[in-house]
Amino acid sequence: MHIPDGYISPETAVVMYSAAAPFWYVAGRKIKRLMSGQTVPLLAIFSAFSFTIMMFNIPIPGGTTAHAVGGTIAAVILGPWAAVITASVALVIQALFFGDGGITAIGANCFNMAIVLPMVGYAFYWLIARNSAPLSRRRLVAAGIGGYLGINAAALLVGIELGLQPVFWTSNGHALYAPYPLSQAIPAMMLAHLTIAGAAEVIATVFVLAYVQRTHPELLFRRAAPDTAESSEMVRTNASKRRGWVFPVIAAVIVLAVPLGLLASGDAWGEWDAETLSQRTDVGYVPSGLHKYQGIWNAPFSGYSMPWVPDNATFFENALAYILAAVVGIGLIFVVVFALRVLSKRLATERSTVST
Questions:
Q1: For 58-102, what is each residue's pLDDT tens digit?
Q2: Torsion of Cα atoms, 204 then 97 then 176 then 286, to 10°
Q3: Whole-angstrom Cα distance, residue 148 to residue 144?
Q4: What SS3 state is found at 183?
């Protein structure tokens, strides 16, 4: 679902950046109150969760792959505006450091996966789960449905964005950017996400919410009724007994499981490089825009690998590099989130000084 450089026109890229910008602005203002205390590590943790779960590739019939995103569960636990920030941070780091998604397509990828996905997912979660107890099974069902609908809404948008490229940008009968029309792009994206990727998103969402209900119920009570007796000291104390190891264990499982994604051969649909695309029998050429923009940015850890890994590396070497890439990515996420906290506090201090 990560749109690479060269698959959308510069005009489309500008439109998508413009569409995402107001949501980034509002999200930044909405979560200023969260940029303190224990919530900052939670923002980093859910951003890291989204980052790592997107590294776990799942094979799709036809030789392609797909992945879950984890946007809805962040919205359920932290709120939809916080989810916009957590997923956006993960996607920007993926593009800048790992070449997963294009630099020119950051606006589009964030709009699809960091804005539409959690917003749609949370909207359906809220409609189904409202007035239910924070620890009820109804919340699990609602979160699963929300996650499924959220990721498919994002996939539909990707299909539309890619499918519109040959409608508006062609030369001599050849597409300048993504070469597949709407009649091919939308079914290809939806087939993968209505089935395998959607199921993966449901499993990830329900599993994490069930785990939080069992080990960190205070997070759900705080979201449901932050100023009532339900978020009492007793709830916080019971959860704190497990707080020391819960998230490290989750992080360890994710990082160790990520290399299993290497077993899935093939690229995600619509994420082929120029050479692969030219060899596909249904295309047979490289769009000039793709050729022009594909190398616009060289990510230091392209393909979630390390510079020292040879082309003929063994599975063990590739798996080790994949784990190291996940560790690097998670570390960068924590740095960025805590830097945002410092920046937020500094701006608040400056405004306070000016006002007085």
A1: 888 776 788 999 999 999 999 999 999 999 999 999 999 999 999
A2: -90
A3: 6
A4: helix
